[in-house]
Every structure is written in C-alpha cells, then in structure tokens.
Amino acid sequence: MSNENTSFNYKCQVKNMAENPYILAAVICQSHNQSNYILYENGNKISIGIGIHAEISVTDEYVTLFSADGKKLYETGVLSDTLQNVCIYAGQDGWRFYGVCNFGLARHNYHVPLGNESKALIRLFLPEIEYELNVDKLEIKTHSEEELLKEKETLAYIIKDYENLLINIKSSNVSLLDDNQLLDKNAEYYKNIVRECIKEIQNNKYQKAIMSRKISIDSRLNMPLSYVYGRIANNPERSYLISWDQMQVLGFSPETVVEVNSNSIVSTFPLAGTRALVKDDYEMNQKLERELLCDPKEIAEHAISVKLAFEELNRVCIPGSVAVSKYMSVIKRGTVQHLGSRLVGHLKNGCNAWHALNMLFPAVTASGIPKLEAIEAIGRLENDPRNLYSGCVLTYDITGTMDAALVLRTVFQTVDDTWLRAGAGIVEMSNPERELEETCEKLRSVTKWLVTDSGVI
Questions:
Q1: Is it the case that residue 457 has pLDDT exceeding 70?
Q2: Active-site pick, 117, 128, 255, 298
Q3: According to the 3-state scheme, what is the secondary structure of the chain?
Q4: Does position 170 have pLDDT exceeding 80, yes or no?
Q5: 317, 344, 380, 426: which one has the fewest Cβ atoms less than 10 Å from its Cβ?
Q6: pLDDT tens digits for 16-44?
C-alpha cells in the first residue's frame, strides 16, 4: 500500500460553532448513523472518522489487516513493533487511525489468560471520511473528489439540523432519564467485593486494586443527544462518541493513558484521589478540596500511582528525561474533583508510541499496584468482563503521534443492552461505604444527562 496523501479537502467556517463545537460534531455523527464512526475530542479540536477505508484487528496471536488489497495476517510477535509496521504499511500521510483498546490487552501484556474478556485486544480503522472541527473552522477530508462533493451536499443539511438542535437545547425539549434508582444497583455486591479486596491487601497480595460495578439501564438511549447534554455539563480531559459494529459508546474521560507527539515526547496524566464536586456550592467544594488534600488514604493512593507511572515511563524513555511536571493538583471533572499529576519523558531509540502505550496499559488508576496481581484480582472478584471499560479510545498517525483516553465515565449500548460502569481505588485504609459513594459521585457526571430514545436529534 502507498503512504502517499491522496486526500481531497474542503474547509469552511460555521456560524456559532466555536461556543459548542461538540453539538455540531454530534449532528455530523447522527447524519452518518448508517456508518461506523468515532468522534474524538482533544482540547480545542474534534476529529471524526467515518467509514472504514482499512481496518486493523489485534488478538493474542495475530495482527490482521483488512484493506482494498485483501486480508493480511501477521503474527503478533512483539506487539508494539508489529503494530507500528502494519500501521505504516496501511497508513497514509495526513490521515489518522481511530480505535479502541479493550481491557483484555492488560491481560495479554501481563501474560494472564483472557478469561471472559473480548478476544479483540485492539481495533483500529483508517476512515473513508474525516471531519475536523477547530474553534470556528470545519474541514472535510475524503479519498476521492466524488466523495467530497457528496459530503459537501450533506453538510448543508447537517448545518440546518445543527441550528435546529441549538434551539431545542435552549428550550430543554428532551426526555432525560430518571436516575434516582439507578445508582443503588449492585450496591451490596460492590461493597462485598471491596471487603474481599481489602482482605487480600491486608494479606499482602497487592497494594491497590480498582474494583468496579456494572449498572444496567432499562431504557434505550439516544446516544448522540446524550453525548451533547453530557458534554455541556462536563469538562473532561477527552470525550468520545462511537458507533462501530452494533456497539455505541459515549464518554467523558477524566484522564489520558498516554500522549505522544511527533518528536517522541511522551506524557501520562494519572488521577487518583476523589471527592465530590457540588454544583453551585463554592464553600462546600472548598471544604471538600481541603479534605482531599489532607486525607492520608487519598494522598497515599495518588502517590503510589504516580510512582509506578514514573517507573514505567523510565523503561521506555531516555535515562534522566522523565519528570513530574505537575504534582497532586486538584482537577475538577464534572461531579467530582481528583488529585492529578502529569509525567513527561522522551522516548528512547527503538521505542515508539505503541511501546509507550503497552508499557502504561492498563492505566494504573484503572487497574492497581502491582499491576499483575491487581489484574488477577479484578478477574477473580468482579462478575462481568470489562471489555472496553478501563481500556482506551485513541487516535494515531504514521508520524508517531498518539493520544489515548482512559475509558471511564462512559455509557455502552448494544442492540440488546445499555449499561455503564464505575469503580474506585481500593487500598488498605479503604471503607466499603465510602468507596460505594465514590462510584456514585463519578456516575452522576453521566447519569444526570442521559436522553432516552424519545429524544430527537
């Protein structure tokens, strides 16, 4: 395959887009609801990959490439090197891959049998069409002039729907899910697995593990509209909206697993330590922030997470290049506030973005310490496979640039089921009631903004 850039581009400005670009982005997704797509928000930029031009699938044994040239099978081998080579072969200049890593990749990386986790460890696709929204500018990219002309015609209808949605949002004319009983689901089960986890920590099996609970939602959701309302209410580090092979996903990620730029600068942004964030109550939030900064359990949980992230980065970076650029800052995310630290390093020769991702995956804040023992505990104590939960959604291009968001504060929907999930970091000083409440605090950043399928976009 050729890496030559054969793209056709169209750029324009869209009135009122700069204030809430994710509203227009959701309408673009809805207008392509018969196609696979991933919307990914990174800072001021929203990228949307639509349709599949080429696809890469990773299992324990093989990396498989599907493209116009047919199907090619590669032995997984050293996964980071194999993925890099396949992406370079299949990629094109100026285009990015969109994809997901499931939690099964954690079990693969630590040589633990997959159990009931998905056999698909990583899935990536190079899109047929790409939209990029940046402040008030919109760009469309396609592989042919014919596709571009068709997409420009579609854009006129998209902008009209966008303007109508702005009016509907101001009038709050939607049906929101009643979440009053939702957060109590599986509460006793969750407290029981937290108690078991604490016992195992006291018996020196591991220092920390993240225990989570799955919560089924009885109503079917309008996912694009739920994304819009949830994004208006939240200030995530990254956000995403996905429709891919009968699975729909929306999420407001509080942190990144890994960020790598084209100069091989790598960073990670672990959050650990949590308190509630109460709407319109400044004094209470200040009190909770002081409590967070002084709580020995929260500080210890955060410190050991940063220490492990530092050690992991050191293994793939030039000696002496890893530094903590921000330590134990209070980061506000929707209905919660966290302790957050950023670590930065420079990848050493022979290491690429996939080495960095695989070294840091699973995120310490979604697995535990040591990771091997925590991954085994998760498989032993939790009832349901995690699959994409606590995995990542990512973008990657052949310059080596990668951005991977941790999948938390996320809703999942298939043809048969709708659910979300939340967890908390368990250490020896944990209290089951408090850990349960922490999962509720996190869930409220999502559950209050879910729009039932009677809503219209």
A1: no
A2: 255
A3: CCCCCCCEEEEEECCCCCCCHHHHHHHHHHHCCCCCEEEEEECCEEEEEEEEEEEEEECCCEEEEEECCEEEEEECCCHHHHHHHHHHHHCCCCCEEEEEECCHHHHHHCCCCCCCCCCCCEEEEEEEEEEEEECCEEEEEECCHHHHHHHHHHHHHHHHHHHHHHHHHHHCCCCECCCCCHHHCCHHHHHHHHHHHHHHHHCCCCCEEEEEEEEECCCCECHHHHHHHHHHHCCCCEEEEEEECCEEEEEEECCEEEEECCCCEEEECCEEEEEECCCCCHHHHHHHHHHHHHCHHHHHHHHHHHHHHHHHHHHHECCCCCEEEEEEEEEEECCEEEEEEEEEEEECCCCCHHHHHHHHCCCHHHCEECHHHHHHHHHHHCCCCCCCCCCEEEEEECCCCEEEEECCCEEEECCCCEEEEEEEEECCCCCHHHHHHHHHHHHHHHHCCCEECCCCC
A4: no
A5: 380
A6: 787 789 999 999 999 999 999 999 999 99
Percent over 90 (pLDDT), the chain: 82
147 as an active site residue: the answer is no
Q: For the domain bounded by 8-447, which CATH number is listed? A: 3.60.120.10
Residue 173's pLDDT band (cuts 50, 70, 90): low
Mean pLDDT over 235-244 rounds to 96
79-90 and 353-360 helices cross at what angle (nearest 10)?
140
Q: Look up the pTM and report it.
A: 0.94
pLDDT average, residue stretch 280-286: 89
Using pLDDT thresholds of 50, 70 and 90, give the confidence band for residue 119: very high
Give the model's pLDDT for residue 198.
98
Structure tokens at 27: 């309408």
pLDDT of residue 42: 96
Residue 335, class by beta-carbon neighbours within 10 Å (0-12 exposed, 13-18 middle, 19+ buried)? Answer: buried
